[in-house]
Design goal:
single chain, mainly alpha, 5 helices
């Protein structure tokens, strides 16, 4: 092998390792950003993931690329981050939780300092967050449904109490008239009885 060719191969290997190093750094940064609570309008993570995809494609295209297991692990982590971003764009928390279940986090830590892969931690955090959001939505829906039912029951109760009051007033009116007629009848009967019957001596 000629010295110029050897130097060229060394430069390609250096360039490949530099690209892989940059990919790992950006991947670590993306995993850190994904683990943090972000503003919904945050755009940087999405752009970083796009850059990760481009770097991964460039790494796959190089002649001196890492082992296929390593590239597959990088692809899995990038796909996970992409899927997580797509899941965050969904409207309801149940859709987000369902989409999150189908995401596959990385199997190996990105750096040597990690004990558990950061994507697995992010996956668990997002699952917990979406579950919490679903509970809040469900609680809110339950409360609003309960309040609506309580309002409907209150209206029905008011209507029924008014009807009951009218019925009781009618019943009291009829009872009052019946008692008045009975008292008058007894009074007239007593007067007639007193007039008809002579005084006993």
């Amino acid at each position: 092998m000629a010295p110029a060719e050897a130097a060229g191969n060394r430069w390609v290997a250096m360039e490949s390792s530099r690209l892989e190093l940059n990919l790992v750094r950006l991947l670590c940064r993306c995993e850190t950003m994904a683990a943090e609570k972000r503003d919904p309008d945050e755009w940087r993570l999405e752009k970083y993931v796009e850059a990760l995809e481009n770097m991964l494609q460039a790494l796959k295209a190089q002649a001196s690329k890492p082992a296929s297991e390593v590239i597959n692990e990088y692809s899995r982590k990038v796909d996970f981050l992409k899927g997580m971003l797509q899941a965050e764009k969904l409207t309801s928390s149940s859709e987000k939780a369902l989409a999150n279940q189908f995401l596959a986090p990385g199997r190996m830590p990105t750096t040597a300092r990690e004990r558990v892969p950061a994507t697995k931690t992010v996956h668990l955090q997002s699952r917990a967050r979406y579950t919490s959001e679903m509970r809040r939505e469900l609680l809110g829906m339950t409360l609003s449904h309960s309040l609506k039912m309580a309002d409907q029951n209150l209206e029905k109760l008011k209507t029924e109490s008014e009807r009951l009051e009218q019925h009781t007033q009618k019943a009291v009116n009829w009872l009052l008239w019946a008692m008045l007629i009975i008292v008058c009848f007894i009074f007239i009967s007593m007067i007639i009885f007193i007039r008809i019957m002579p005084k006993l001596k």
